[in-house]
Design a protein that fits this description.
43% helix; 16 strands; binds uracil; six-stranded mixed sheet; five-stranded mixed sheet; 13% strand; globular; 489 residues; single chain
Length: 489
């Protein structure tokens, strides 16, 4: 029997190195005792006294590429059995490369269950971290500084740190958890797997959260079960707004009756307040859902930027929930705003036509926009499209990021400059980026092309035909990359 003791705080490399050694030495899963490090368990690594298997640590082990992201996620789970489970899967995958496709296999099902739980915990972290402002040390001037305390179930801090870096890039922050911490100072993102200490802080930010929550609480939409499932009670103790919830629920019925009595004569008071607040308030983190349906539902009441005030509805993404390819446009147009679906107007027709020519099925893609509300200027009876500004794109990125987290596309096609800006923060010219696949985080590839509405705006018919051809050629490349992804599993 071999024994190996791991720190087990979400470090994939630690498990991978040991697993690679065992696999290269043909040690079967039954012969390994995977242990979790504790004060008593002593040294890390292969235990003294055990014969360490002889192996070639550089040996190249070939497993389907889909195993790596699965293992990287599962390793963050806090279940001590995860090391053995992953090694069993690895061992079996070498014999049977298609194993992961058998969802009913007990090892595969268990790994997927752990993966889901880590994902869920990660989503909860993005929703329920609450920053509190702290004073700068005496005499120090600089950016505002915030700290947050969060209690995740799993070792997810490192996974989520870049989310907070993107989201709260303009402030210094420190997120402390018993399962590691992350710190951002505008230059460097530092993460650690060491447990951090809880500091008790109360400040005005708590009042802001409470006011915000009381404002967005719509008594007519009260679904206590759904609410407590999206915002499980275990998180309440660290949420400043949580102590308002019982009171708001109790008063909900009376408020619904009051709203009904006023209905149709004038908009509700809190509606005006919300809209006014949305003009100035920095985007707060909303509770987020674990499914696209749930997320779409939440997005319907999005007030992160003022665009919701004039648009008919939020136009959310649609398509295959685990699509390999995600298409990102700019924002819904006039037709989409009324229909509530992306790319169903004139630009959507060009897009559909080109998809048809390349042989790509739209239902196999996930199609969405950088901005989910239609921005326009009213001219007479017409609503004239206006490009969303940087702030609107940045706020709406919250939804796009959530969509990417849930769909997990491998290839993202940015159609037009707004999509590129939303996905990369770059303001580069499309012609400089077009047609060249670029690596993105999480092993994704970004492919940039023009927006189909650009083709509609070209007045000269010859040029229009030429540009259409170029767009078709770009989409053929996308199709080939998608086929390649499908083939490589
Ligand atoms: N243009 C876009 O970018 N998206 C749509 O959904 C429609 C037009």
């Amino acid at each position: 029997m071999y024994r190996v003791t791991l720190e087990g705080r979400g470090d994939f490399a630690e498990w991978r190195n040991a697993a690679r050694a065992f696999l290269a030495a043909h040690v079967s899963p039954r012969e390994i005792d995977w242990r979790l490090h504790s004060e008593e368990s002593g040294l890390l690594g292969f235990e003294e006294g055990d014969a360490v298997p002889s192996f070639d640590s550089t040996a190249n082990i070939s497993v389907p590429s889909s195993f790596v992201p699965l293992a990287q996620t599962v390793i963050c789970h806090s279940d001590p059995a995860r090391f053995a489970l992953l090694y069993r899967l690895l061992w079996r995958l070498v014999q049977d490369r298609a194993l992961l496709q058998f969802k009913s296999d007990s090892d595969v099902a268990e790994a997927r269950k752990l993966e889901k739980s880590v994902r869920r915990d990660s989503h909860k972290m993005t929703a329920f971290v609450r920053f509190k402002e702290v004073d700068l040390p005496e005499g120090e001037v600089g950016r505002r500084r915030f700290v947050a305390w969060f209690e995740p179930d799993h070792f997810i801090v490192e996974r989520k740190a870049s989310f907070f870096q993107r989201r709260f890039t303009d402030m210094d922050w420190f997120i402390a958890t018993p399962k590691g911490f992350a710190r951002w100072d505008g230059q460097t993102l530092e993460t650690s797997r060491m447990a951090a200490e809880k500091r008790v802080l109360n400040d005005e930010t708590e009042d802001l959260w409470r006011t915000y929550y009381a404002n967005i609480f719509n008594p007519a939409r009260l679904k206590i079960k759904a609410m407590t499932s999206e915002m499980p009670k275990k998180y309440w103790k660290n949420l400043p707004e949580a102590d308002l919830i019982p009171e708001l629920i109790l008063g909900a019925e009376a408020r619904v009756l009051e709203m009904a009595a006023k209905a149709a004569s004038e908009p509700q008071l809190f509606h005006h307040r919300l809209q006014a607040a949305a003009e100035n308030v920095a985007a707060p983190v909303l509770p987020d859902a674990d499914t696209l349906e749930g997320l779409k539902h939440e997005a319907q009441s999005c007030t992160l930027c003022p665009l919701h005030c004039k648009a008919t509805q939020t136009v959310f993404g649609e398509g295959q929930s685990n699509a390999d390819v995600m298409i990102v446009g700019e924002q819904p147009g006039d037709v989409e705003d009324l229909a509530g679906r992306p790319f169903v107007g004139p630009a959507g027709k060009v897009f559909d036509q080109v998809l048809g020519e390349t042989g790509m099925a739209r239902e196999k893609l996930y199609v969405t926009n950088a901005v989910k509300h239609f921005k326009y200027e009213a001219r007479g009876k017409k609503r004239i499209h206006q490009r969303p500004d940087a702030g609107e794109v940045q706020r709406c990125r919250w939804w796009l990021t959530r969509e990417m987290d849930l769909v997990q596309p491998k290839l993202i096609v940015a159609m037009g400059a707004t999509a590129v800006f939303s996905l990369t923060g770059m303001n580069e010219k499309i012609s400089d980026l077009r047609g060249k696949p670029m690596p993105m985080e999480a092993g994704r590839t970004l492919f940039v092309t023009v927006h189909p509405s650009y083709l509609l705006r070209i007045p000269d018919e010859v040029r229009k035909a030429q540009e259409l051809k170029r767009f078709q050629a770009d989409m053929k490349l996308v199709r080939d990359m998608a086929l390649h992804l499908e083939a490589s599993g």
